[in-house]
Amino acid sequence: MDLGIRGKRAIVCAGSKGLGRGCAEALAAAGVEIVLNARGAEALTATANALEARHGVTVVPVAADITTPEGRAAVLAAAGEVDILVNNAGGPPPGLWSDWSREDFLRAIDANMLSPIAMMQACLPGMMERGWGRVVNITSAAVRAPIAQLGLSNSARAGLTGFVAGTSRQVAHAGVTINNLLPGIHATDRMIALDSRTAAEQGITLEAAAARRAAAIPAGRFGTPAEFGATCAFLCSVHAGFIVGQNILVDGGAANLTL
Ligand code: NAP
């Protein structure tokens, strides 16, 4: 299927690895020019070069922390006018509800709620003026089915979800859609880190921890960044203009929900 977005311009935040990279890869394959962000310059440049070589599009790397005002300013300055915004950042650490301080909450809210909101506030006016735009926020399956030890993530992402619910309906008339993609378990560095922690806590191997987790997913496996990215690219396509303000689970059926 031709996604109809060849030549569009995108910002992909936190995209040198994992799910962000999957989104960047799928957009590049659809012919989208990309400003690609992550903090670590080495992996970022390697990813940008790989995408350019594979897909023949321009990929401009901007090494910056997207959770800081300076980082966002650098990304926005490099991008200029954008048609597509993919918001992403690292997730907050796991822990126990009783241990988190006000500062822990503020850090999580800054990274996973206020940063994507600031990026939307910067990009939406131009998209609306030009009559076309797509925003995809990478959130988490925990928005629909909370994961107890990820309470910082549950809390911050709930705030972002509320913002998107209202705002998406205020900008849709201008041809701009905002949707959230909710990853379940995907094979990325983040998952290796979480499985390593489980393995250490339970005295089992990393492979055993991963297998145990995969067995609990109806699809029987972890998702891949490639299939997650393809879903993101579809939401950014010309075909998805009537999908507005949705929270789309990509989780292999793991959340046991009817709706
Ligand atoms: P990942 O494999 O660890 O990759 C994270 C990417 O984001 C890297 O490119 C990293 O590069 C970049 N990054 C992290 N913090 C950043 C920051 N402050 N500014 C700019 N770039 C930053 O993570 P992932 O698994 O793809 O997860 C992506 C998001 O989805 C996270 O918020 C995670 O909580 C959420 N999620 C993931 C899963 C899953 O199964 N993987 C499930 C539910 C939710 P640098 O470190 O160099 O900056």
Write a structural description.
This protein has helices spanning 18-29, 41-55, 69-79, 102-130, 151-171, 189-202, 206-215, 225-235; strands at 9-12, 33-38, 59-63, 84-87, 133-138, 176-183, 247-250. The chain is an alpha/beta fold. The chain has a 7-stranded parallel β-sheet with strand order 3-2-1-4-5-6-7, sandwiched between helices. The longest helix has 29 residues, at 102-130. The model has no long low-confidence stretch (mean pLDDT 97). The structure holds NADP nicotinamide-adenine-dinucleotide phosphate (NAP). The site of NADP nicotinamide-adenine-dinucleotide phosphate has 29 residues, from helix 1, strand 2 and helix 6. Pfam families: adh_short_C2. It comes from Paenirhodobacter ferrireducens. Belongs to the short-chain dehydrogenases/reductases (SDR) family. InterPro entries: NAD(P)-bd_dom_sf, SDR, SDR_fam.
Short key terms for the protein model shown above:
NAD(P)-bd_dom_sf, globular, binds NADP nicotinamide-adenine-dinucleotide phosphate, 8 helices, Rossmann fold, SDR_fam, 2 domains, SDR family oxidoreductase, 259 residues, alpha/beta, seven-stranded parallel β-sheet, SDR
Briefly summarize what is shown:
By secondary structure, the protein is of the alpha/beta class. Helices cover 47% and strands 14% of the residues.
